[in-house]
Amino acid sequence: MRRALVAANWKMHGNRIFIQELVSGLIPALSGGVNGVDIVICPPFPYLQMVDSLIKGTEIVLGAQDVGAHESGPYTGEVSASMLADFRVRYVIVGHSERRSLMNECDQHVAEKFVAAQQSGLIPVLCVGETLAERDQGIAGQVVERQLSAVIDQAGVTGFSRAVIAYEPVWAIGTGRSASVEQAQEMHAAIRQLIALQDDEVAQSVQIIYGGSVNPENAPALFAQPDIDGGLIGGASLNADSFVRICQSVS
Ligand code: PEP
After folding, report:
1. Could you tell me if the CB of 234 is within 6 A of ligand 1?
2. How many whole angstroms from 173 Cα to the centroid of ligand 1?
3. What are the catalytic residues?
4. Which residue's CA is the closest to the ligand 1 atom numbered 8?
5. Which pLDDT value is given to residue 1?
6. Could you say which DSSP state residue 56 is in?
7. pTM here?
């Protein structure tokens, strides 16, 4: 039986006062955990230490939004996986579509980040997903397969025994237009099937979460699907009440 996982991606939002208030709003409902759900919060880098202090002693764990592919060296502006681990970060998002499109991160570079994260003991949350044009062309499955294969090439399929996959159709991120329950379940099942072709045990155990305009209203139906193990939440995670309700909607 897989545990569910709900992760908050705050993106580049907030300041110290906002984050203090947001976390204070989460703690009463989430500190003791919810229905065996893994709850992860991914603040911007400068706030990691502050959030770590605020969630200490609770069931909420810390994640980061990105990681450099290198261990150390002349990479100005980059943050390594071991540095994140040093700050008690447990999860890290890699390959978010905003980084793939805005920072030109290719599949191979995302795979390098995935490997770097695991080498430092972090759990990568690998984001995959197609654009609207790719869905309209009928190649959504091929795009997701290509993104997953790049990681399998570098980490092996067993890399997914210590990772989370987030299916995030690009057209659903921040648009208010979530994938339908059927579209999401279909892609999640296809992802699991793809992994099962190489290792059924890994396929049955890997958490595959959905991201893209999840809110308290659509979360229950999405999370009730057999292959949807939770969500990666952007906009709705910036409101404590919404994020708590989303976490509580895992059945
Ligand atoms: C995201 O940032 O990964 C995301 C899914 O955003 P939103 O929930 O706002 O669509």
Report:
1. yes
2. 5
3. 96, 168
4. 234
5. 82
6. T
7. 0.98
- The Cβ-side half-sphere exposure at 147, using a 13 Å CA radius, reads 26
The fold of the 4-248 domain, in CATH, is TIM Barrel (3.20.20)
Is the CB of 213 within 6 Å of ligand 1?
Answer: yes
173 CB within 6 A, ligand 1: yes
What three-state secondary structure class fits 92? Answer: strand
DSSP 165-227: EEE--GGGTTSS-PPPHHHHHHHHHHHHHHHHTT-HHHHHHSEEEEESS--TTTHHHHHTSTT
**Where do the domains of the chain lie?**
4-248
User: Could you report the per-residue pLDDT of 122-140, keeping only the tens digit for each?
Assistant: 999 999 999 999 999 999 9
